[in-house]
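Design a sequence for this backbone.
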């Protein structure tokens, strides 16, 4: 397949050429024709995954979609048009800077992909497939840094919510990369690390996580609450279970399967015999099937779960109740950012219509509405049913008391998932049948 001489020049642009797969004219004095591949080529690349909207193109200045301007999906002529709209790979590559077909051998255009599965940041920083650090950075910006500005009393109150609630932790992430196995077709240019192609299609999604690095989020929250290591591991396992079920169900809307893979290598001599190196994919093990995860880590988590049930652990009160015990000085020190999302970091900012909420109480209620709507969305997507009741009190997912919330409920935007998450809910409404057929196909 190889038809290009890699750039061996020492000029300042050699790194750029190799990174983007641009043909070096000095090392290739003859014109290079793009490869026309009759069959598909398998490669790997990441997409940006948003927990509220699904996959989005990872390009600067992306084209805005209908949900950027509307709260309900537009009328469509066919189900296929909406199906294609949700896929960032649905159209063949175009060059955004020059008027020529993509990919061009002497340009950087085309769909990028890499040859190896599970490359890490230390090897190819720009093409890293591991999502751990990105998730940690997102959570720190949206939650951890805001907690640091609060009093000790407030820190413990909010840290306990995030420690036990996988839904609240997930909702604060927004975007992070998700890996996919892709099939390349059309014109393909082979590069040093991968390819630039005319067409690309996702076949299977993966989320690559380093368990003990991600566990630092639970450790930081646990330190504020004096939690031991067993409870910290349980908090992380419950969170990964939530992410695994959520992304797996969303992947079916795209017609793809999904697998979470976890790196659990702690370089512990006691655990060395529990690993099976020949079965590893660059150190990542199946979250659902690997014995180490299911026997060692889940054993710890299950012990904590049983203890909580024996102690009859109760869900926390609603956020509005917690707000009442929060010193007013703390609420003025919550950091602000330049987006209009309702989240923990933005409790004092404007709503999605650019208008200030009536008071601080409404901010907290709107935030709580979104959390409960997200749990309903999770239930709808994982069970392929858009008619689930939005009033279910699932304390395992959210760790908030729905009953207390309803007792003092004042409507801000409503609890319907469609109001808060119109994109995914619209896709779900249109593709429940496809989803069920996909389940049947997987079982077959």
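Sequence:
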């Amino acid at each position: 397949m190889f038809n290009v001489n890699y750039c061996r020049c020492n000029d300042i642009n050699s790194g750029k050429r190799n990174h983007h797969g641009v043909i070096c004219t000095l090392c290739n004095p003859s014109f290079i024709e793009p490869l026309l591949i009759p069959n598909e080529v398998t490669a790997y690349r990441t997409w940006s995954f948003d927990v509220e909207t699904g996959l989005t193109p990872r390009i600067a200045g992306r084209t805005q979609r209908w949900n950027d301007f509307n709260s309900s999906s537009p009328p469509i002529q066919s189900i296929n048009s909406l199906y294609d709209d949700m896929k960032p790979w649905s159209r063949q590559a175009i060059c955004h800077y020059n008027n020529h077909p993509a990919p061009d051998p002497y340009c950087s255009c085309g769909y990028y992909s890499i040859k190896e599965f599970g490359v890490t940041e230390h090897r190819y920083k720009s093409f890293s497939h591991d999502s751990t650090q990105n998730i940690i950075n997102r959570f720190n910006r949206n939650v951890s840094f805001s907690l640091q500005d609060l009093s000790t009393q407030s820190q413990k109150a909010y840290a306990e919510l995030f420690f036990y609630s996988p839904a609240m932790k997930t909702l604060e992430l927004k975007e992070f990369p998700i890996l996919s196995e892709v099939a390349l077709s059309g014109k393909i240019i082979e590069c040093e690390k991968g390819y630039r192609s005319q067409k690309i299609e996702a076949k299977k999604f993966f989320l690559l996580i380093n368990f003990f690095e991600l566990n630092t989020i639970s450790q930081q929250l646990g330190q504020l609450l004096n939690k031991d290591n067993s409870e910290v591991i349980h908090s992380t396992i419950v969170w990964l279970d939530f992410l695994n079920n959520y992304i797996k169900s969303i992947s079916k809307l795209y017609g793809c399967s999904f697998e979470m893979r976890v790196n659990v290598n702690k370089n512990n001599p006691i655990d060395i015999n529990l690993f099976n190196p020949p079965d590893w994919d660059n150190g990542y093990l199946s979250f659902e099937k690997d014995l180490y995860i299911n026997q060692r880590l889940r054993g710890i988590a299950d012990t904590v779960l049983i203890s909580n049930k024996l102690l009859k652990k109760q869900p926390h009160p609603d956020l509005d109740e917690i707000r009442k015990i929060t010193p007013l000085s703390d609420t003025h020190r919550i950091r602000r950012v330049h987006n209009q999302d309702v989240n923990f970091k933005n409790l004092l900012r404007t709503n999605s219509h650019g208008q200030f909420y009536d008071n601080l109480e409404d901010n907290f209620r709107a935030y709580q509405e979104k959390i409960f709507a997200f749990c309903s969305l999770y239930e709808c997507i994982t069970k392929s049913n858009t008619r689930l009741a939005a009033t279910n009190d699932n304390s395992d997912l959210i760790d908030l008391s729905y009953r207390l919330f309803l007792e003092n409920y004042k409507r801000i935007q409503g609890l319907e998932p469609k109001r808060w998450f119109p994109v995914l809910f619209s896709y779900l409404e249109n593709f429940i049948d496809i989803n069920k057929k996909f389940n049947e196909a997987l079982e077959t």
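Strands lie at 35-50, 54-56, 111-114, 175-190, 194-210, 257-263, 285-286.
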